Amino acid sequence: MWLLGNLARATYVGSSNFVWPFSYDTCDESNRISQEISACNKINHYDLHPLQGRGAPEIDIIEVMAGTVEKLPHTMITKPYASTSLQVAPGKKYNRPRLGTRPVNGTWYNGLQYGKNLTTDLNPFFYGVNLVHEPAKYTYQSDAISANTQLSQTHFERQHVYRVEWEPSDVNGRGGYVRWFIDGHFVYGIEDYTLNLTNTMIPNEPMYVILNTAMSSTWGFPLPCPRGCKCDCFECGNSKCECGFPPGFCKNFPNSFDIDYVRIYQAVNDTKHKLGCSTSTHPSDVFIEAHKKRYIDPFSGDKEPLKVVETGGMACTDNKDCGGELNRGICDTENSCQCFTGYTGPSCLANVGYNDIPNKRKILPVEFLEENAVTIFIPTPLKCVFGFFILIIIITTCAKVAQRRNEKYLYESIGDV
Q1: pTM (2 decimals)?
Q2: Per-residue pLDDT tens for 55-97?
Q3: Residue 407 carries which DSSP code?
Q4: Taking a C-beta distance cutoff of 8 angstroms, is the pair 86, 57 a contact?
């Protein structure tokens, strides 16, 4: 369960390159080349504001590391545990903590807060990703400011409440915080001053919630690969491919990830709390429309990033297949779900939703544009080069005009003979 800035589409790398997970609104020439929408840009096209750094930061509500109880190095936490993280860029470039060890003073973020009711500790197993690009000057570092919280068997057998409180920074990047809770107990917090190490900021981008199940061979799988196993394939029931899984992994299937409810709250009349994915302070609709291909799977054949939500149509055998026991639809005589008014989705499981407070961005008045006009600075050597070429053009043009006049005079003289 996580949140991602609206300028990137989850798992679509083309949309996240040079955008994820930037939360940076400072003009720094050393980072400008790696941040597509930089605060150094005096002119940002696609309806973006000039001199405003933008990106797609990430807030991870919960990522679970399962496994049998075993002592882990440099932490009080044992498996299983839950990770909660804020991921931002640009990250700390030099003198970084070594993976798997605790950071030395001055090498990592200060002021991180940990709860007392549940066992929570710094996450020494993930400090961020170095995003490698060619040429190398485009490579940049991201930071994962992360903590692990101890879980027990009950977290896999009963419903629990996971909560994140995200207070965005203001339009100038000041203030804000991110705080995580489990069953009402505070477990971890990051305040704005904690990010002074890299001059990043608590995200103020429009973000969306993602609820998904994902597995990775780099997350909880045996490392190094067990002896006698190549770890070049992973498939339960196949002896050659099953050996790379954690012990007992395949016994977990079939399984389910059940979510009882999702509730989102915003403060009333708070200028930092806005509805919509393209707001007046952080417009994104024109940028996304102009780069539509980034948000589409190139192998899908789709022409639009988003698909229309289907209302009904899922195959069914009885009414419970169409909205469960919530009386949201019926299974018709053709064994197809038909949704009642107010419900949608192939199986009628979702409420029909809409933005009841649509954002209406105002067109800036001429006075504002004149007051905020940008003067483009051209270095003196470049001015000399431009001046030289302009002089050549003028001389050439004058010579051509003189030549044509002579030709005209000659023609007129011949005509009088």
Answers
A1: 0.80
A2: 999 999 999 988 788 788 999 999 899 999 999 999 999 999 9
A3: H
A4: yes
By CB atoms closer than 10 A (0-12, 13-18, 19+), residue 57 is: buried
Q: What sign results for the dihedral spanned by CA atoms 314, 317, 321, 326?
A: positive
DSSP letters, 251-313, are GG-S-------------TT-TT---SSS-SSS--HHHHHHTGGGGS-TTT--SSSS-PPPBS-
What is residue 82's three-state secondary structure?
strand
Longest Cα–Cα distance in the chain? 113
Question: Residue 165 CA to chain centroid, in angstroms?
Answer: 18
List the structure tokens of 207. 């973000």
Q: What is the pLDDT of residues 348-400, one digit of tens each?
A: 999 998 766 665 554 444 343 334 444 445 566 666 666 677 777 777 776 66
Please identify which residue in the block is written with the tokens 């030395």: 104
Nearest-angstrom CA–CA distance, 16 and 201: 19
Exposure on the CB side of residue 391, measured as CA atoms within 13 A: 6
